């Protein structure tokens, strides 16, 4: 097991391609995307979905601690443009050493 950073981003789907490009250029090559995310944020009761007519996306990615500064510096301006949130937490990664296919 080793320490990694978990990056969770909820943003307007319009910015998805830019955010994924930033992650990739920062050395974060793996991610998951969940589309059509709705919810209530800290800014009030209205959902972004109601106001913009565009869907929100949830992006989950993991990176090494030394890659995090670059991600934050590049993602922040994108989130400031259309809104969105980014949460970063410490977590542990367990890499599997034996795949079922190799048994």
From TrEMBL:
Note the Gene3D superfamilies from the entry: 3.30.70.120
Which Pfam families does this one have? P-II
- GO MF terms, alphabetically ordered: enzyme regulator activity
One of this protein's GO BP terms?
A: regulation of nitrogen utilization
InterPro entries from the entry? N-reg_PII (IPR002187), N-reg_PII-like_a/b (IPR011322), N-reg_PII/ATP_PRibTrfase_C (IPR015867)
This one is known as Transcriptional regulator
């Amino acid at each position: 097991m080793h320490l990694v950073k978990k990056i969770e981003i909820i943003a307007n789907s319009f910015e998805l391609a830019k955010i994924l490009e930033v992650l990739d250029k920062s050395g974060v090559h793996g991610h998951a995307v969940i589309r059509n995310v709705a919810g209530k944020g800290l800014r009030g009761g209205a959902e972004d979905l109601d106001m913009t007519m565009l869907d929100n996306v949830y992006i989950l990615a993991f990176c090494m601690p030394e890659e995090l500064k670059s991600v934050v510096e590049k993602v922040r301006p994108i989130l400031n443009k259309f809104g969105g949130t980014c949460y970063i937490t410490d977590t542990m990664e367990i890499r599997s050493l034996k795949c079922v296919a190799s048994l």
